[in-house]
Amino acid sequence: MTNLNIRDHVWHIILNTNANEKKCERYWKPVETLLELREIPHTLHIVRNQGEGISTAKELCQSGIRHFVAAGGDGTINEVVNGIFTSGVETREVYLAVLPLGRGNDWARTHHYPKSVEEVVDLWLKGRFIQHDIGSVTTQTPYNQQETRFFINIAGFGFDADVIYDVTYNKPKIGGSAVYVLSLLKTLLRHKPTKVTIEADNGLAFDGEVFMVIAAICKYNGGGICEAKYAVPDDGLLDLVIVPKMRIYQVIAHLKEMFSGDHIDKVKTIRKVLTKEIRIASPSLLRAEAEGELLKTGNYHVEVVPNALNVLTN
Hints:
This protein is an alpha+beta fold. It has ten helices and 18 strands. The chain folds into two domains: 2-126, Probable inorganic polyphosphate/atp-NAD kinase, domain 1 (Rossmann fold, 3-Layer(aba) Sandwich); 135-306, Tumour Suppressor Smad4 (Sandwich). Helix content is 29%, strand content 35%. The protein has a 16-stranded mixed β-sheet that branches. The chain has a two-stranded antiparallel sheet with strand order 11-12. Helix 3 runs parallel beside helix 4 and helix 7 crosses helix 8 (178-190). The longest helix is centred in the first third of the chain and has 14 residues, at 24-37.
């Protein structure tokens, strides 16, 4: 762990005004007041469109900036991380703090971030940074194209990604976390297991039909669901959680336990593997997502980049 004097650096804040149903812009004024009261040097960069957080972080890195704050939800953190990792700089020189102003704030749960913004700013002033692992997913499409995305929390395959697909393309006219829950229930009713072959560091990890597969750096996803109970963000490993095909009644029976992570221990068919690398292949359509962003479909290669980025923790 590194202890940093926050006031010795100018922090470049990337604020996503579209996060949390565009509430972030309204939240910003009291945050700005707090930063001035705490005498934290900062510069604000507002992003409004998808992908703009990536380009902004990338350009700032290439101009020599090394101290960032992602202000928004998990998608904002995702974009800032991808901007840093596609910039070509030495990422271990970069420091990232988070102001969780989003709807789910799943990444912040693993790090026990406080709920109030004032407490988060005070946490930031303590300057405790760990060297956080980062994951990468490279998709090999049927047309031999490759695309790589980085993630700091969780990448999901199968049911998890199918829910994100429904949220993205069939979003109901309701707000808040109910959007994800409703899409989860809708997807559950029509979901079919997918045949996959999964290889990890020590060879074949699974060959058969799956409900979903999780590759995790941190623990939570989907608005508080504990998908990877034992994940540690700086152990240099991916927590691979393989959930074989399940019937609807089995999923519903363990739904409450998914928020505590106890389903991982109670459902005996679930497989847990610690690995640095995963290859997932399927003859059928297997959707994938990272931090709530749908990825191109194909076969997938997932790797961990150990201790790759200095990140604020509690």
